[in-house]
Amino acid sequence: MTSLWLWLSLGLFLALLVCLELGYRVGKGHIATHETDEGKSPNLLSGIVYGLLSLLLSFSFAIAMQRFDARRRIVVDEGNAVGTAYLRLDLLPTVEQPPFRKEFRRYADTRLDYTKALDNGLDTEEFTKATASQQKLIWTMLMAEYQRDPRDSTRIQLTPAINAMFDVAATRDESVKTRVPLVIYLLLGGVSLASALMAGRNLAARPTREWGQRILFSGVLAAVMFVIADLDSPRQGYIRVDTADQILKDVRSSMQ
């Protein structure tokens, strides 16, 4: 996925340079035909398009950054939730703990395998189904224990922790599917190209083509687009949430 976005960003960079040149030639032709120096400063329409581009870039970057932070926080929350629920197994009578601990170890292993599949860009459906199956089993075991003695407060204290562990897993699964909409990328690309056309036309009154400004303009826009896409792929990109996985790994290592 990262290599794909790198190529797309490079393609956008080149397309922006082409649009700048096209706009420059259109502007030169207009000046030659009308014998005017219109284009020395951006017109109203150019200002509107530039403003729209700035707004879209800010909006898209904010969405991508917010979702990146949310995904990292969810990974941390899941590790903490599994650890808390596992610790509360100590509330159960000693003789009843081993079956629960065994299933918790299997559950943690499944969630770690789920994480590895995400890192490798593999299909996670198998691990999602395994998670649901293990959740059902753990819940069935808990209800069986609760029915033995409904008045036992220890089982009541264990229930919210297991609920939280299940809920955060579902939230994490859903967050993986949530991405910046494709239409936003298409809109950003279209407005960027339109801005490049207008910027090239405004450069037509200059005595030189200003290649330094063109490369800087195109490079910055392409780089921002790449960073937005990279933030939206925190498992395959350069900006990753891998460090948060250590919490669940540590929890699994502590399970006896």
Structure description:
Helix 1 packs parallel to helix 6 and helix 6 runs antiparallel to helix 7. The two termini are about 40 Å apart. The chain has one domain. Helices cover about 80% and strands about 0% of the residues. It is rod-shaped. It is mainly α and about 260 residues long. The mean pLDDT is about 85.
SSE layout and pairing:
Elements: H1 2-34, H2 44-87, H3 97-119, H4 125-148, H5 153-177, H6 182-202, H7 211-231, H8 245-254
Helix pairs in contact: 1-6, 1-7, 2-5, 2-6, 2-7, 2-8, 3-4, 3-8, 4-5, 6-7
Please report the distance between the alpha carbons of the first and last residues. Answer: 38 Å
**What is the H-and-E element order?**
HHHHHHHH
Stretches where pLDDT is under 50 for at least 5 consecutive residues are none
The domain tally reads 1
Mean pLDDT: 86
Indicate the radius of gyration in whole angstroms. 27 Å
- Shape label: rod-shaped
Residues in helices, as a percent range: over 70%
Strand content: under 5%
Q: Sketch the major β-sheet.
A: none
Discrete helix count: 8
Alpha-beta content class: mainly alpha
Total number of beta strands: 0
What tags apply to this protein structure?
single chain, 256 residues, mainly alpha, 79% helix
TL;DR of this structure?
The protein has 256 residues and is an all-alpha fold. The chain has eight helices and no strands. The radius of gyration is 27 Å and the shape is rod-shaped.
